[in-house]
Amino acid sequence: MRPSGRAPDQLRSVVIETGATKHAEGSCLIRMGETHVLCTASIEGRTPPWMRNSGLGWVTAEYGMLPRATHTRNRREASVGKISGRTQEIQRLIGRSLRAGTDRVMLGERQITVDCDVLQADGGTRCASITGGWVALRLAAQKLVDAGELKENPITQHVAAVSCGVYEGKPVLDLDYAEDSEAGTDANVVMTGAGGLVEVQGSAEGATFSRAELDTLLNLAEAGIAELVAAQKAAVGG
């Protein structure tokens, strides 16, 4: 039995509330169980200097955890004076994932920055950030369409992510902290709504895992991501 009582292939409850902030062009608060992430998307009318005159747009991301997102207070990284390696890795993952669903030619020479702030953490924060970040990104890009600056929304594919792993010898979907901290195998899977793999991160914690177990985890993730894409569609209206 999983600590939460969920079935092996069952996601935590998923709630996506759009319009979570007043000023951002796109925003949502995503709740996956007890993991809550505020995602905001901001549009700039220019790209980074190294992309100027390329005709391409850019999507990037920043990620952070509030000091009391976990059981004990963590110091803000700004107070330490540097970004941790974990934060950098997650930011890059979110950015890569969201760009996979973006037609950068259609976006034109603009940059959209997606900020993912973890309000409360109970495992799977990077996956929730990608899933919610896509919603914020899509809403922001729609603002450009509504304003007549673009003919079509350049966010052309849904992108969502979910964790999976082997807990007490059994493959399970969407690990919470109690499972993640004890899992024998832990993986994060990012996919498009069409079923294309964007990224697979997986590692063994102690014992190795087999190709058959990996296939089982990918099948679990694919089914879970289909549910998350349905939640995204409900949130943005398509």
UniProtKB/TrEMBL annotation:
One of its GO terms (biological process) is rRNA 3'-end processing. The keyword rRNA processing applies. GO terms for molecular function: 3'-5'-RNA exonuclease activity; tRNA binding; tRNA nucleotidyltransferase activity. The keyword Methyltransferase does not apply. Phosphate binds at R86, G124, T125, R126. Keywords: Nucleotidyltransferase, RNA-binding, rRNA processing, Transferase, tRNA processing, tRNA-binding. CDD domains: RNase_PH_bact. Its EC number is 2.7.7.56. Residues 10-140, 159-223 form the Exoribonuclease phosphorolytic domain. It comes from the Bacteria. InterPro entries: ExoRNase_PH_dom1, ExoRNase_PH_dom2, ExoRNase_PH_dom2_sf, PNPase/RNase_PH_dom_sf, Ribosomal_Su5_D2-typ_SF, RNase_PH, RNase_PH_bac-type, RNase_PH_CS. It catalyses: tRNA(n+1) + phosphate = tRNA(n) + a ribonucleoside 5'-diphosphate. Phosphorolytic 3'-5' exoribonuclease that plays an important role in tRNA 3'-end maturation. Removes nucleotide residues following the 3'-CCA terminus of tRNAs; can also add nucleotides to the ends of RNA molecules by using nucleoside diphosphates as substrates, but this may not be physiologically important. Probably plays a role in initiation of 16S rRNA degradation (leading to ribosome degradation) during starvation. NCBIfam families: RNasePH. Belongs to the RNase PH family. Homohexameric ring arranged as a trimer of dimers. This is Ribonuclease PH. It comes from Albimonas pacifica.
